[in-house]
Amino acid sequence: MTTGMTMAEKILARAAGKSRTAAGDFLDCKLDGIMAYQGFVETHHNAQEAGLKDGLPKVFDRKKVFLMVEHHQPATNLKVAERGVLLRQLAKKYELEHFYDTTCGICHQMMVDKGHSLPGELVVGTDSHAIMYGALNCAATGIGETDSGYAFTFGELWFQVPESIQITLTGTAPNWPIGKDIMLYLAGKYGVDMALYKSIEFVGPGVKTLSMDNRFTMADQGVEIGAKFTIFEHDEITAAFLKSRAIRPFKTVSPDRDAVYAEKYTVDLSSITPQVAAPHSFGNVKPVTEHVGVQIDQACIGSCANGRFEDIEIAAKILKGRKVKGGVRLLVSPSSWDVYKQCMAANLPEIIIDAGGQFLNPGCGICASNGAFMAPGEVCITATTRNEQGRMGSKDASIFLASPATVAWSAVNGVISDPRPVLADVLK
Q1: Residues forming beta bridges with residue 99, ordered by sequence position
Q2: Is the pLDDT of residue 71 over 80?
Q3: pLDDT, average across residues 240-262
Q4: What is the maximum alpha-carbon separation in the chain?
Q5: Those residues with Cβ within 8 angstroms of residue 17's Cβ, 6 or more apart along the chain or in another chain
Q6: Which end of the chain is least crowded, N or C, by CB within 10 Å?
Q7: CB neighbours of 282 closer than 8 A, spacing ≥ 6?
Q8: In three state form, how does the secondary structure of 272-316 look?
Q9: What's domain 275-426's architecture?
Q10: Are the CB atoms for 185 and 277 separated by under 8 Å?
């Protein structure tokens, strides 16, 4: 007796040229796109060390490799500057149609801003947070340098079809960014390994109450709880986002009614409260009320997890007419230049600067160990991706993860604070 398929199974079966597949199968899949940034240089050097003096002999499709000078832009040291030069040379060598240089932003936001990952597709990237594109109803995941060399050259990779977890969302999300709180709640309740090499599929009526910005946060943070893919169904909200961005035809996927899931969970969005992950794990989670009063030195909003317009907008609404507490550094970094322009059109940078915050270039600087460093003993509350020990400089510094609203209100008070009272005021 045959059973239906999950979204991940449908996408992988299509990519493998098969009519159906099931969890546990091994498939050779054709890729619809590859995101690359500085890891492309390492792949090039690895090919040279393997005896290919000119690096990779080819790329499988110059229209499907999306290369970006990213993560360390502007260049933060000589090595990074030299790597940028080589990336530009490689983009010319392979005649890549999609190459983004100095006016880029975070690679994952660029992939969705520019329509490079679309519903029903299988897309990989040389960074774990490539999983974020699953918010657009595609299967996306990160790959390493060895896999990437083969993928760039031949446009295919093998996959073991993952088991899937169905998370049904009910209730109504509040009118502020809640994506981070949802994922922290899941990590705190079920553990950071709840979805280890599994595909998470978000379904249910609550999904329609979530903006694309929330969905991107949730898909992005799926990797922190072990997920291979994090996939949302396509709906009118997805369609509206893609309307002016889709650069090629696509075919959406939905799970079959009799699809087989390893686990099923239900989350009532109206019951989610602000959550905080304490050092040094994404899963070390308690409600914000358990951390109220912890003194902070730094507060950050940005990264591929929470650097989008709604994340920055809610911070600006909280900060308007207020000041960042003396002694606290508030750093806000949009995830791409498109988001930066959205923020400028809404006058958000001026509000944040007037409040005593810093509005930075788009990029990974406040998240990826090349900026926002802390000294021993300092404490940061941040709406970025991770809080492992040493990620922001000293191993003796402490990193708390929270939503943008919690971060902004904490920056005003100088201590970790529950944002719900101020949200009730600024959003009424």
Answers
A1: 67
A2: no
A3: 95
A4: 67
A5: 30
A6: N
A7: 184, 187, 192, 221, 224, 225, 386, 387, 401
A8: CCCEEECCCCCCCEEEHHHCCCCECCEEEECHHHHCCHHHHHHHH
A9: 2-Layer Sandwich (3.30)
A10: no
pLDDT level of residue 235 (50, 70, 90 thresholds): very high
Q: Is 143 helix (H, G, I), strand (E, B) or coil?
A: coil
Confidence of residue 1 (pLDDT cuts 50, 70, 90): low
- SS3 assignment, position 86: helix
Q: Cα(109)–Cα(382) distance, rounded to whole angstroms?
A: 19
Q: Supply the pLDDT for residue 403.
A: 98
* Sign of the torsion angle spanned by Cα atoms 155, 252, 385, 301: positive
- pLDDT reported for residue 162: 98
Give the pair of three-digit tokens for residue 107.
Answer: 């690679």
Q: Per residue in 401-414, pLDDT tens?
A: 999 999 999 999 99
Crossing angle of helices 309-319 and 337-345, rounded to 10°: 40
> What single string gives the DSSP state of each residue in 186-207?
HHHHH-TTTTTTEEEEEESGGG
Inter-CA distances, 360 with 86, 241, 317, 345, Å: 26, 25, 18, 16
275-426 has the same fold as 7-269: yes
- How far is residue 297's CA from residue 362's CA, in Å, rounded to a whole number? 22
Q: What is the 3-state secondary structure (H, E, C) of 319-351?
A: HCCCCCCCCCEEEECCCEHHHHHHHHHCCHHHH
Read off the pTM: 0.96
Beta-carbon contacts of 170 under 8 Å, excluding residues fewer than 6 positions away, are 204, 205, 206, 266, 267, 268, 269
The residue ranges of every structural domain in the chain are 7-269, 275-426
First to last CA, the chain: 54
Structure-token pair, residue 408: 């902004």
User: Mean of the per-residue pLDDT values for the chain?
Assistant: 95
Tokens at residue 214, please?
């929330």
399 strand-pairing partners: 380
Q: Is the CATH code 3.30.499.10 the one for domain 7-269?
A: yes
**Alpha-carbon dihedral angle through residues 238, 243, 249, 250, given to the nearest 10 degrees:** 0
Q: What pLDDT does 426 receive?
A: 95
